[in-house]
Amino acid sequence: MTLQHDRPRTLGELRASGWHPRSVKAELRANLIARIRSGAPLFPGIVGYDKTVIPQLENAILSKHDFILLGLRGQAKTRILRQLKTFLDEWIPEIEGSEIHDDPFHPTSAYGRRTAAELGNATPIAWVHRDERYKEKLATPDVSIADLIGDIDPIKAATRKLSFADEEVIHYGLVPRTNRGIFAINELPDLQPRIQVGLLNILEEKDVQVRGFPVRIPLDMLLVFSANPEDYTNRGNIITPLRDRIASQIMTHYPLTVDDGIAITAQESWTERDSGVDVTVTRAVRELIEQVAIEARKSEYVDQSSGVSARMTISLLENVVSNAERRGLRTGEKTVWPRLADLHGAIAAISGKVELVYEGEQEGPTNVARHLVGRAVKSLFARDFPDAFKTRGRGKDAAAAQVYAPVVEWFAGGKGVEISDESSAQELYDELAQVTGLEELATKHLPVTRAEEIGPAMEFVLEGLHQNSILSRNRVDGGGTAYGDMLKSMFSGFQSGDED
Question: CB of 152 within 8 A of CB of 210?
Fold first, then answer.
């Protein structure tokens, strides 16, 4: 970034310009007020927090509070913290050469005070961009007080022939070097308690001491933190005095609606490819991907205290697109439409993104991933179709039974279908169109608007019927899937090979 040539370059020029210093929190508050009045977005790219998290962030900044974001993984905590720097002034002056961004009017370091005293109005001024005023540290058990606060530097003392009693032998840590800025600590509970104690003075008295050195260094900064709420009882704890000094505690959350989840996944995923194959992702596929995450967040196989990150749906969508893209490259199709088989071909994006409880570990990551896809299909099928458990109903349930009767009877006649994620759209349609009543059932209850969506819709119906224990499903050699009559499958022993 280049500096403007008309910006003051000495302390005298700065005084003459009329510039006045203000604290970091006052600066953030003023700029937030201006942003709110202008109607500009406060946290661009943060979806689903407009009525929950963002108002609390506004309150914290307006109150000049240090704050902590508490939430499970993948809830945009770090992204929010990094966007706080946009509320800082674009440029601020400092005494040139200062390690802790000394305010030219009120220097705090020994170097800054000495320079201002010796040079007066000729003191050289440098300008610091807002990007340099945000510092972030990931808390790990090996972080030391020296890393955060600083330590005596014996090499500096020796080379400059200074006494250890001289303030200038201090090597400043990350916190003092963020003076007049924003300092963020991610995963705060991972800091050892004795290190957390070192933050107490910063939050309350706004100063630091290095190894009990008699001089205190007053700091001007906003301190912000992030943590997983479960960490209070798992990996570590936030000590009570520190938690008491953090003025605002803000809870984050996963998307509250499917639409918010779809928007986040679409925003973060890489789906625009350059392979010459156009992958058209329908709303139905996007809903199904989000439903997988919803099912994972309530599954008995998944450790709910760990959470299921939005990164899972992002990776899953990217893998689904890749699976469809790969099919298009092999079949020569210029446009391909992702379908259910692509989700089964992308389970690697699920199995590595969830932490399993003991029961899940017994089932195995791949089986749990397939189970989650199946639960997602069953949930959406129940939303769009009549109750599949009434397929053999009588009386008032006869109408529901009639809906599925043609399909069920076709399979009951000993017939079956076999599909693969490598079959072209036409091959998929030709295979499934032979099932009596299947196309009519799919187009009646699903929002099919294009001919290319009919095959995937019919495949979804078959999987929905399988998840409701009406049809059997078996994997076949070559990675394909075969659907058949449940009763026949049970008698012939096929059920033992069913992947669910």
Answer: yes
